[in-house]
Design brief:
5-stranded parallel β-sheet, globular, binds adenosine-5'-triphosphate, binds magnesium ion, 7 helices
């Protein structure tokens, strides 16, 4: 079922850093024939009637994202997983999954300043609004590692960000 250009990409970063916006732009660039799935932690989390953002809930959400990724990869889809991915431990199982399915893997950190994230977040309504303390907490606890590719959404438009991610993905192919 695997196809030549199949990939698994992680879009990591704090709330309002631009993960979902850039993922949607990238999906548009790839076009209708690309068989790409965009998995969002938000959508899984909001299947829970009253999410409480506990550690156990996070573990369950990431495990669900992994299970879905596995099913889609097995059936020939490329997958973008859009979640905060604060911890190295959140990201590691996906790298293992990509290796197992022998598909390209890229973990991208969508970067913006706390100030910008707070400003973007202030324009959100309903459950999309993230309490400022939680947002700041994610900024201070995010675990970086060398394998993360950083794309700045303050200096790049969503289109530029998506294009640079695509070209990074291409170099990964050539390098592997
Ligand atoms: N260059 C940019 N790239 C991405 N988003 C941008 C950019 N410039 C401005 N924005 C705005 O910033 C906001 C980013 O929100 P988005 O929902 O994409 O973030 P997110 O990282 O998915 O957040 P969450 O983790 O809460 O789902 C959007 O309102 C978007 O229009
Ligand atoms: Mg989002």
């Amino acid at each position: 079922m695997k196809h030549e250009n199949q990939f698994l990409m992680l879009f990591a970063g704090p709330p309002a850093s631009g993960k979902t916006t850039v993922a949607r732009t990238l999906a548009e660039l790839l076009g209708e024939q690309s068989r790409v799935v965009h998995l969002q932690s938000d959508e899984i989390r909001h299947m829970i009637i009253s999410p409480i953002y506990s550690k156990h809930e996070s573990i369950t959400v990431y495990a669900s994202l992994k299970a879905l990724s596995k099913t889609f990869l097995r059936n020939g889809y490329s997958v973008i997983v859009d979640a905060t991915f604060t911890r190295v431990n959140h990201r590691r199982p996906f790298r293992v999954l990509a290796r197992r399915f022998d598909v390209k893997f890229l973990a991208v950190y969508l970067k913006c300043s706390l100030q910008t994230a707070l400003k973007r977040n202030a324009e959100r309504t309903g459950w999309r609004f993230v309490p400022s303390e939680r947002l700041a907490g994610i900024f201070s606890s995010f675990e970086f590692d060398n394998s993360l590719v950083v794309v700045d959404t303050e200096t790049h438009t969503p289109r530029e960000a998506a294009e640079s991610i695509l070209s990074l993905l291409k170099t990964r192919i050539e390098a592997s």
